[in-house]
Write a structure and sequence with these properties.
The protein is of the alpha/beta class. 41% of the residues lie in helices and 16% in strands. The protein is built from 15 helices and ten strands. The strands form two sheets. A six-stranded mixed sheet has the order 1-2-4-3-5-10, with helices on both faces. The protein has a four-stranded antiparallel sheet with strand order 7-8-6-9, covered by helices on one side. Helix 4 links the parallel strand 3 and strand 4. Helix 1 crosses helix 4, helix 4 runs parallel beside helix 13 and helix 8 packs across helix 13. The N and C termini lie far apart (56 Å). It binds zinc ion.
Length: 478
Amino acid sequence: MSSEKNYAQSWIEENKERIIAISDEIWRFAELGLVEHKSSSLLIKELEKHGFKVERGVAGMPTAFIASFGNSKPIIAIMGEYDALPGLSQKKAPYKEPLKPGQPGHGCGHNIHGASGMAAAIAIRYAMEKYGVKGTIRFYGCPAEENLSGKVFMVRDGYFSDVDAAISHHPSSMNGATLKSCLALNSAKFHFYGKAAHAGGSPDQGRSALDAVELMNVGVNFLREHIIQDARIHYIIEKGGTQPNIVPDYARSWYYVRAPEREQVEFIYKWVLDIAEGAAKMTRTELRHEFIGGLYNVIPNRTISEIIVRNMREIGLPEYTDEEIRFAEEIAKSIPPEMKIEALRRTKRPGWERLIDKLIDDEIPDPWGEGDVSHGSTDVAEVSWQTPTVEFNTATWVLGTPGHSWQATAQSGVGLGHKSLIFAAKVMAATAIDLMTNEDLLKEAKDEHRRRIGERKYKSPIPPEMKPPLDFWEKIGT
Ligand SMILES: [Zn+2]
């Protein structure tokens, strides 16, 4: 390993207590997307302490920021997230018990996401200074990944346009840097307006907005047979009336439409809009359609994934204490074996069968999944259309842990999570240094990026005048 990389590793090793404390603090804050005020301030303060220049309130979001060090090319971006999920509060215990009932929790491990990226950026900065490495390291503080929005606005407003490559890390139950893509997405709410009336005495005078919501759902459920298998459509009814003896004069549903390619999403989405209009017509109600946001699919990058895997192997996987293993074993008891097997199978990782009887992933696989899609979505995708980008994973949770669960919240705040955090920070620092110091590698990553995009053009899925939904959480309750 080069001296620059070694130096960055030792900086992370020497400062690991502080790095873990920051991750734990963000875990405790557990703030929702776009209101991560304490979490973003904590990261900003730390980055400033280490000489980073920070631009706050990026792209109209008070909790988005860019911290940079250096002022020449190449520009390497490290991305960090720090938003929690509603209702997933959980104690640092191997059984289900909320810390604050009903409150948010870090069920996707974004406390680690933010801290690992911050630590890597600081370590790189010291290695750059000591060895005179040319370039710029930028840490992108990206809010609201769970509301699928932060990076969409940052990309639309041009904040990634001069970046040469981007890396980020996401906690997982597996190690790896896959070549999979994910689903592009549209999110929208459907507001139906009818007429209230006594549901028993004079229903003929009423026009039910809830009927419209239900008929739209029926229409969409019939649509499923006639769209591509990889598409996903899901909805909730956010508002369905007040009480049964009043014909609901207002009702609202919230839909996600997902598919592997952006144009497939747009095709299905248009059909869903037609169905919504049909439902309004059938019920003689009025429809208002509110576009919430959209995402692209991820463009993978083999060149960067291979560098990441090489660095993972050189650094070596973390070792666990007996206490950490005991905690992991307790958590594992809450995951039914058939669920674990399905979760492993779904990854299509070559040799996944070997993991069935294992507690924690102890392998570092070659990049896999070329041409395959995972059925989630992420706003990392937007960045991946601008510049070569890879989001890699490290084992933070025991194998089979469901995403967005109490088990994931608990493990993201204890030893397993801490070990994964330090390991990921080292891998990220080493990879960014490789890209900064090896022109050929960076060129290869960029050529590959150009090849993969081909003739396709990125057009922001959100309109130019659209503002970040800063009132997102207030509106949910209305
Ligand atoms: Zn996540």
